[in-house]
Structure formats: C-alpha cells, structure tokens
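Q: Convert this sequence to structure tokens.
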Amino acid sequence: MAARLNTLAWAMVTLYPCVASADDADRSIFSLSSFGTVGIVHSSEKNADFTPSIFKPNGAGHTRSWNADVDSLVGAQLTATFTPQFSAVVQVISEQRYDNSHRPFVEWANLKYQFTPDFSVRVGRTVQPAFLFSDTRKVGYTLPWVRPPGEVYSLIPVTNIDGIDVSYRLHLGDVINTVQGNYGQSEPRLPDGAGKIHAKESWGISNLTEYGALTTRVTYLETHLTAESLNPLFDTYRLFGDEGDRIADRYDPKDKLMKFIGVGAIYDPGDWFVMGEWGHFDSNSAIGTLGAWYVSGGYRIDAFTPYVTYARSKTLSETSTAGLSTATLPPEFAGVATELNATLNTVMASASSQQTWSMGVRWDFAKNMDAKLQYDHTHLGNESNGQLTNLQPDYERGGTFRLLSLSVDFVF
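A:
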C-alpha cells in the first residue's frame, strides 16, 4: 500500500509542472496550497523532553531547553479535479520524524469519486477522523491553540489510515449530518529503534453534525494493535511456563483489540467560542485503559483571541501487577523475574495520567497568518511521565512541569 501511495504522490507532483505550462483550461485541473508552523517551545523539565507525539524522538527540556522541532512543520497539498466526480489529493509534510530527520512524507494520498453531491468514496491514505480537528490537526492556522490538548489527542496519535473511506451527508432542514466510515491499516514507526505500531483490520464510524454555530462529532474506532517495542518483554515472560504465558496473554500488546470512543462539540458564533472533547481508549494490554477530556474557550477582540483550556487524562485500568511469583524460583531466575515484574509495572504506571491548565493568545496580524503565545502548567499523576519522553536517570516520575510556546502559522 505504501509503495502505491508513493507512486500516486510522485505522479501527481511530476504532472503538476506539465499542466501548469499548458493552457488555462488544463491548468484549472490542478490546485496547490501550502501551510506551515514556525514555533519554539521551552520546558522547565531538564531531565526529560516534552513532545506532542510519541513519534518524535526528542523535544523541549533535556535535549534543548528551547526547541523548534516540537511544533514546526511545512506542508503542501496538491488537488487534481479530473471530472466533477473524480478527483485526487496528495498532501506532503516535512516535520521532525522518528529518526530525527525532516524528510518529507506523504500524509494523504487518495482517489475520490463523488457519486452524488452528498455521497463519496475515497481509496488510499486518508485522515483518521477521531477528533473535532482531525482533518486539520497539522494545520496550525485552523487551531485556536498552539497545539491540540495532548491529554485527548494522544489517545489516537495516528493521524491517517490506508484503506477505504465512505462519506454520506444528510440535510435535515438547517441541520447537516455527515456519517463517515473507514476501513484499513497503518504502521507508523517509533523512535530509537523501537519498531512499529501495527494497527490492522482497523475500522471506524464518525458522525459529524452541524447546526448553525454548533458542531458535534461522535466517533467509534476499533483496531487490532501490536506495539513491537513491548513484545520482547512478554516473549521473555513466556519462558517461565504457564504462569508467564498467562501474564503475556493478558498484557502483551500483540494483535490486541483496541477500542476508542470520542465525543466532541464546539459552539462558535463568531465573537467567542467554547468547546470540549472526551475520549475513552481501551488497549486490552499493558498500555492500559485511559479516559481524557478538555474544555476550552476564548473571546475575539479585533485581531486578538485570548483563550484558556483545562485538560485531564486518567488511567482507568490497573497500574501494577504482582507478576511472576519468585518464591519457588532458583535465585538466578528469581532475579530475572523480579526485573521483568519491575519493567512491566513501570510500563503500566507510566500511562498518560495528567492534568494541564493552558492560557494563551492568538494574534491574526496578517491575512492567512497568525502568531500565538501559550503557557501550560502540567501536573503528572503518581509514577506517570505523561507526554514526557527521553527520560534521564535523574528524572522523577510525577511532579509538575511548565511550557512556554511561541508560534507563527500560515496558509497559502
């Protein structure tokens, strides 16, 4: 699938200059837009890094006190409208990747057929529609904040899916209701040689309702999840016989059924806005069961929009287990079992349990451009490292940290 997507992306990009040099009628087939964010973030935590995504290898804090890789990115989207019914889209983004490079990658690449004005089917790489801002999650200009609240948006860190997407829109008086369903898979790669996350046989349904200034979304997703980075831990557990097999069967994130449900709403009459989202994630593994929500509001004063957000996530599953019994094991095996149990308990306790107060201001200083200043104060749950990564030996789980973020967003 990835090879076919790259072929589609390359074909469209190479065709664009040829079409652009033809007559005006041909030129209208293609349209090109771009977007980006230039940002810098400071973290008060010196023994770990803050990152907005598990797919980034480092961030603000230990690696660099002020880090420009946390939010900065540039993207371009090429749309080809071959007929009123048949079109194609390729979106390419350059940002910090799992290997610390900024090599461009294909975020979207799909073919779309519009059977009727309200019914369409897309095939290829499309957005994973889990949240209110899923469609524009990487387009900072469309967001009221510097970045979406991580407590909720980290529940589904994968932003796209390879497969098929079906959308049907229904008009009920002043109400527009869009039902979207998809099926496919994704295999993003984790930093530091931790392998991939495999999400296979993924399917979901999302219902978006628009009524005047009110927009709501309800989403349900399922996938068979495998986290390669944790599989060796449980392969070692299985060496301890039946007891090890039972522990591995319970906690190993290998082809486990993951379920997610999300609900969100935004009311934006123009001068002000208020919004909130809630999500529940169940991995059926050591990754745990998490619940998260946020509320946010802001008021527009000419070109300025001050805003405030409160977000919270909580681990709803057990955060420790007795693990292997060491009483009857020989000393050399008891030591290994003790280390295995400690590692498993660290994984279970380190889930993103935290709460964050954020306040900031957006300044729309030019057409299609804004500047944002945001302050975050995060309190971590006991033994949790939240969204902090690259933990150093002196790092102490729990506690608090603060972020100061500055960014400039643009769309063209």
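Helices lie at 2-20, 24-27, 150-153, 231-237, 241-251, 331-349.
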